[in-house]
Every structure is written in structure tokens, then in C-alpha cells.
Design goal:
Number of strands: 12
Low-confidence stretches: 122-138
Strand order of the largest sheet: 6-7-5-4-10-11-12
Largest sheet: 7 strands, parallel
Mean pLDDT: 90
Radius of gyration: 20 Å
Order of helices and strands: HHEHEHEHEHEHEEEEHEHEHEH
Oligomer: single chain
Number of helices: 11
Length: 331
């Protein structure tokens, strides 16, 4: 109750936000949603009488609205994203006053404002199936770089599920709090043929392996050493408001891989990755952007499309097919 009241007081101080109601449990929240018709709802996973994930699963088919999850470190937050939440924030620890203040005054209001413009209904899946990489295909691409933000946990999962273990090595930046990236990578690793894990300094990029940049205060870059692409993690200030940044990764891929790389930019707020993807394309890389109809937030792919960085704009379910078309030299 104390934390809830603290959130209400501080959110109401933001001139762009008005808290219309605060609920103790999902049943009370249901009634308040019908009464006040809010633009955004924040929701904890651990709630009395019904947990937040079950509430989402019941709510979204009948009353879809943007939901920001407030979660402690747990992979259950990805169940919430799968159930329809558009964003999540890491719950601060009760002992760290500065962390609590940053969360209430900065991080949560930003996420709420992003959610207010997010698209709640995800586009229906198609029956498209990636055609598969021919073992004898001649392709110059030996590296795929992916960037995503808001809505990207589900988008990246769907994209990777459409790829087999015969694809070139993959590197990914998904804007996410520290600690959650390892949980997310472990979950992705269980979903398909690809091996997926959180990247570590010095990791070698290999076919069939997807490396996810760790959340926190390090950027992920690639270097070329002894004929291999290797991961370099380095602490540095945020770029485009993010650490890790998609632009930092894409710029390094452009430099070390050039025309031997492929870049994919997925749903997300802002413009992180657009400049880096443009540099990749200028150096001969093939590039793909998610289209507006399947984005939760058509921000990053839109900026990339408008600045000329995107060679092919595709619906999310079709991106894996496009990747295989490029790998098989069919486009």
C-alpha cells in the first residue's frame, strides 16, 4: 500500500500524467478500468486474489489497453509480455533510496508515456514458414545483427523461432534492464533450434548461435580478430538514451563486417539503431525493417526507413523468410 501511494503521488507530479485510480487487486482494478477508461495501466505480477499475469490473460481479450508491468527480477515478466503487456520496468529494491527515486521520477513515467502510444493488438500470425537455408547456397552474409526496444521481447522471440540452426551467427541488442537479459536469453534458448545466450566479453560469433547484449551499463561491439567476429563489452555513457545501444552495435558491425553482414531493426520507441543501420547499408550490408502494421511502437523502424537505412520493409512474420531469401541469393 505504501509503495502504491508513493507511485500515485510522484506520478501525479508529472505534468504529462494523471493517475485516475489506484487498485488493491485485479477485481478492484477491473471495476476502475470500466469506470475511468484509463489510457495506460501499471500492473505488478504479485497481487492478492489473482496474479497479474492471470489478470492480463482475462483482461486483454475483452478490454485491451497498454499495460506496463512492474516486476522484480523474474522470467515471469516475459509471460506477462506474451499475455499482452507492452512494457516492463524492474521494481527497485527497498534499501536503495536513489534507485527508488530514479525509478519513480524518471524510468516509470517514461515507460508510461511510451505505452500510451503503443499498439496493443498484435498483428495475427501468418502461416509463413522460413524456406530454409540450402546447404549449398553461396552467400556472402556471415553475420546477422538485430536491434529492438518496446515490444521487442515478443518480436525477437517470433523472429528467432522462424530461423533454423543453419543461419549465420546472430548478435542482438534488446533494450532491457540489467539481470533480465540472462533470463530472456535462457527462455529464447528453449524455444527453437538456435542456441541463445547472454553475451560475454570475448565470445566468438558462430553459425547457429545468437548472442544477446547484457542489460546494464555496457555497450556491445564486435571486432574482427584471427578471422573471427568477437564480442567486446565496455562500460560507457548511454547512447540515444540507452545502454546497451543498437547504434553502437550496428556501427561496429558496419566497420568490421561491411557487405558480409545483415541488419534487422524491430519495433521500438525513438531512433536508436537507425544511423547504425544506415552505415551498415552504405557499406554493402543487406537491411530489413519491421513494418508499421506489426510494430507495437513504430519508432525505430520508422526512423530507419525514412533515413534510407531499410532495404526491405516486412511484416514481422515474414522477416525470417526475407532473411533466407537473402542468404540464398534470391533477392
Amino acid at each position: 500500500m505504501l509503495f502504491r501511494e508513493l507511485l500515485v503521488q510522484n506520478l501525479n507530479r508529472d505534468p504529462g500524467i494523471e493517475v485516475v485510480a489506484a487498485a488493491r487487486d485485479p477485481f478492484e482494478a477491473r471495476d476502475m478500468i470500466l469506470k475511468h477508461q484509463p489510457d495506460v495501466m501499471t500492473l505488478d505480477i504479485e497481487l492478492p486474489r489473482m496474479n497479474g499475469i492471470e489478470f492480463l490473460q482475462k483482461l486483454m481479450p475483452q478490454y485491451p489497453l497498454p499495460v506496463v508491468m512492474i516486476s522484480s527480477l523474474s522470467d515471469r515478466v516475459f509471460d506477462a509480455m506474451n499475455a499482452g503487456a507492452v512494457e516492463f520496468v524492474a521494481k527497485p529494491t527497498a534499501t536503495n533510496r536513489q534507485e527508488i527515486e530514479d525509478f519513480i521520477r524518471t524510468e516509470l513515467p517514461v515507460k508510461i508515456k511510451i505505452a500510451s502510444v503503443a499498439k496493443v493488438r498484435r498483428a495475427p500470425r501468418t502461416d509463413d514458414v522460413a524456406m530454409g537455408l540450402k546447404r549449398t547456397a553461396r552467400t556472402e552474409c556471415d553475420l546477422i545483427a538485430i536491434g529492438a526496444s518496446t515490444g521487442g521481447t515478443e518480436a525477437t522471440a517470433e523472429l528467432l523461432k522462424g530461423l533454423r540452426g543453419d543461419v549465420p551467427g546472430i548478435v542482438i541488442v534488446q533494450h532491457m534492464p540489467a539481470g533480465f537479459t540472462e533470463l530472456y536469453a535462457n527462455r529464447l534458448n528453449e524455444r527453437g533450434e538456435l542456441e541463445v545466450r547472454e553475451a560475454k566479453n570475448g565470445d566468438v560469433v558462430k553459425p547457429g548461435l545468437a548472442l544477446l547484449a547484457p542489460g546494464g551499463d555496457q555497450h556491445m561491439k564486435l571486432i574482427r580478430q584471427d578471422g573471427e567476429y568477437k564480442v567486446v563489452l565496455k562500460k560507457a555513457p548511454k547512447v540515444n538514451g540507452h545502454c546497451p545501444s543498437v547504434d553502437v552495435l550496428f556501427h561496429s558491425v558496419a566497420e568490421v563486417a561491411g557487405r558480409n553482414a545483415m541488419g534487422v531493426i524491430l519495433t521500438g520507441m525513438g531512433g536508436d539503431g537507425a544511423k547504425g543501420l544506415l552505415e551498415m547499408r552504405r557499406r554493402g550490408a543487406r537491411t530489413i525493417g519491421q513494418d508499421e502494421s506489426t510494430c507495437v511502437v513504430y519508432g525505430m523502424p520508422k526512423v530507419a526507413y525514412e533515413n534510407g537505412a531499410v532495404e526491405y520493409q516486412e511484416k514481422l512474420p515474414n522477416i525470417s523468410t526475407r532473411i533466407y531469401s537473402i542468404l540464398n541469393n534470391k533477392v
